[in-house]
Amino acid sequence: MHAKNSRTGTEAIAVNNVTKRYGKKTAIENVSFTAQPGRVTGFLGPNGAGKSSTLRILLGLDFPTSGTALIEGKPFVNHRQPLRTVGAMLDGAAAVLERRGIDHLKWIAESNRIPKERIVQVLEMVGLSNAAKARVKKYSLGMKQRLGLAAALLGEPRILILDEPVNGLDPEGIRSVRRLLQDYARNGNTVLLSSHLMDETSKIVDDIVIINNGKIIDSGSLEEVVADHDSLEEAFFALTGIKSEESW
Ligand SMILES: Nc1ncnc2c1ncn2[C@@H]1O[C@H](COP(=O)(O)OP(=O)(O)OP(=O)(O)O)[C@@H](O)[C@H]1O
């Protein structure tokens, strides 16, 4: 196990026995895992596995049927400076299409008392400086993802929670996001990202939590989870018994 957050003495992210039911449908069942400072943790599983449901609960956008999902020891909604604690991207940029990229960030910065100099920094970090004045409707999917990432970085949060951040990125885009997230984690921050793209994600993460059908089926360092398989994808198929033609 890695060190806990030295500032608070608690786990950066701790999901404990979380179950979420929507009517009769159980989206996730007894999900438990942690994510640690200084590490990029990948939350991986196929479509419908329960990743978004878990992240929504972590961010206080939904309530668990049972269990707890804590950020630095308490629910996200109890944090007094949420944007400085957690930067999140759940749905790409989720920006108004008519808006210019830079205005999307200005709006978030102003409503959270973040100095505008930070906007220039985050645009630079995600490689969007030259496209900042273009309208979001002109952005490619990858550019929207980067804008979402820029928004998540605005508050210089200690924790990043990102739903499918490499979706829609080309190989170069994936490489830049990898560098960015790994550097961010190396500076002592915690990065949790979800993905259904096993091989792309395995190039980014240090630790892995695999979810399938709403249940955690394995977790540990990348090396531990891959163990004697050729790749993370192969490890996943071996763990689930799913054949590679199915579901991915
Ligand atoms: N509001 C809801 N009402 C009913 N069922 C839901 C609701 N939200 C999620 N589910 C169900 O819960 C399960 C988990 O969904 P979730 O979106 O968390 O999966 P996911 O791993 O994020 O998948 P994807 O990669 O497709 O986004 C799915 O079977 C989904 O249909």
Automatic annotation (TrEMBL):
Instruction: Return the SMART domains for the record.
Output: AAA (SM00382)
Which domain of life does the protein's organism represent?
Bacteria
Name the InterPro entries on file. Answer: AAA+_ATPase, ABC_transporter-like_ATP-bd, ABC_transporter-like_CS, P-loop_NTPase
User: Is Transport one of the keywords UniProt gives this record?
Assistant: yes
Membrane spanning stretches: none
Which key words tag this protein in UniProt? ATP-binding, Nucleotide-binding, Transport
Q: Where's the ABC transporter domain?
A: 13-238
The GO terms this record gives for MF are: ATP binding
A Pfam family per the record:
ABC_tran
**Is the ATP-binding keyword given for this protein?**
yes
**Family designation:** Belongs to the ABC transporter superfamily.
Protein name, per record:
ABC transporter ATP-binding protein
